[in-house]
Amino acid sequence: MTLPLTGSDSISTNAVAMRTHDERLVMSLLKQLGALQETDIVQHSGLPLQTVSRVLDDLEKDALLLREPPRGAADQLLSAASLNPDGAFSIGLKIGRRTSELVLMDFSGAIRASASRAYAYPLPDAILDFLQSELPDILDVVPADLHHRICGIGVAMPFELWNWAQAVGQGGSAEAGLADWKQIDVAGRIAELTELPVHVQNDATTACRAELAQRNAPELSNFAYFFIGYFIGGGIVVDYAVYSGPTGNAGALGSLPIIVGRHGSGQLLDKVSLASLEFALTQQGIDPSPIWVSPNAWTTFGPVLDQWIEDSANYLAQAALACCSVIDFQAIIIDGAFPQDVRSALVEKTASVLETLNTQGLARPDVLAGSIGHEARSLGAATLPMSHRYFVDRNVLSAAASKTN
């Protein structure tokens, strides 16, 4: 069953067509810096005033931006341009090991609607059923005459999901069901269901992409990003751009080696994960289900959670130094599918441990909290079709700086 989109074919063609580089550059500036006057756009973009005026006229005609002159100002150069929240929409689907999330994002980056489902294992048929059953209600949030402005669906999912059952020591039906991921063309099946362009990326990389887009910190050009979900993953940002590498798996920070105890070793994902927290809670007879069903409110975990934060911080500090021995990152950003107070405590403890480690020959990075939380992966997924169609693939502030200095 497909989910057809409605709207004028002619308008649809104009609205979703690939934009020119100059248009994408201007829209990227508006996304990064907010409302700007024409003269500001000229300064930041390096484009001639005549070009900027033409681009703004074209984007306004296609309802991709809004222009509102200051009160009492008649000069068009003083009119402030901003992205029209209703100018475009995209869908983000996060496929996780314990939950899936579906979000609708508008052109300003705000989430208009969302849905989620928890499960024991992420079986392909169950995920597609979730998408097919929830997407109509998500799309209903968009007025029918704007459906043609839905530009695509982004999918955030772990690579090689079929290996998960073995990784956690499960077998039987779980392993057999997860093996179906080897055979399924995720992008193709979702495109059949939705009639939308589909973009697929590693889930931790999409979370990093969302962090870069949402943080809006022009002074922060390089950072390593850790996202703690069922396992831990991450991403790296160099010169304002997410670097995903030739295979799309760059920034696989969960695979970093760590020292465990006096003589042991392992990988970061072995010790820092929500799976390890779930195991510790179960061992103490505490129901771990709020981890997955209430990612913004954990109130019953007590000392077990405190110990998990302390242990995780010790390993994250090790990993932070390993990252900075390769690239002199300005910051290490930590986020995850947990409440804000847990994130704050984990960041504070990691920074404290880092202060005690030998950093000779290295520049000690700042340790910062992520700005999104559990929705980072689904929000990052929704940015994929938007970025593909409307924005340049790097923070334009670095290019602007080189033009204006």
Provide structural commentary:
This protein has 405 residues and is an alpha/beta fold. It has two domains: 1-196 and 377-405, Arc Repressor Mutant, subunit A (Orthogonal Bundle); 217-374, 2-Layer Sandwich (Nucleotidyltransferase, domain 5), CATH 3.30.420. It is 43% helix and 20% strand. It is built from 16 helices and 15 strands. Helix 3 packs across helix 4 (49-61) and helix 13 (302-324) packs across helix 14. The longest helix is centred in the C-terminal third of the chain and has 23 residues, at 302-324. The N and C termini lie far apart (55 Å).
Keywords:
disordered N terminus, disordered C terminus, alpha/beta, 16 helices, 20% strand, 2 domains, 43% helix, Arc Repressor Mutant, subunit A, Nucleotidyltransferase, domain 5, five-stranded mixed beta sheet, globular, 405 residues
Bin the helical content: 40-55%
Main sheet makeup? 5 strands, mixed
Structural class: alpha/beta
> Which regions have little confidence, pLDDT < 50, spanning 5+ residues?
1-16, 401-405
Rg calculated over all Cα atoms: 22 Å
User: What is the distance, rounded to the nearest whole angstrom, between the alpha carbons of the first and last residues?
Assistant: 55 Å
Number of strands: 15
The CATH topology of the largest domain turns out to be: Arc Repressor Mutant, subunit A
The CATH first-level class of the largest domain comes to Mainly Alpha
Shape: globular
Number of DSSP helical runs:
16
Widest sheet: strand ordering: 6-5-4-7-8
Mean pLDDT across all amino acids: 87
CATH superfamily of the largest domain: Winged helix-like DNA-binding domain superfamily/Winged helix DNA-binding domain
- Gross CATH architecture of the largest domain: Orthogonal Bundle
Strand % is 15-25%
- The domain count comes to 2
What's the multimeric state? single chain
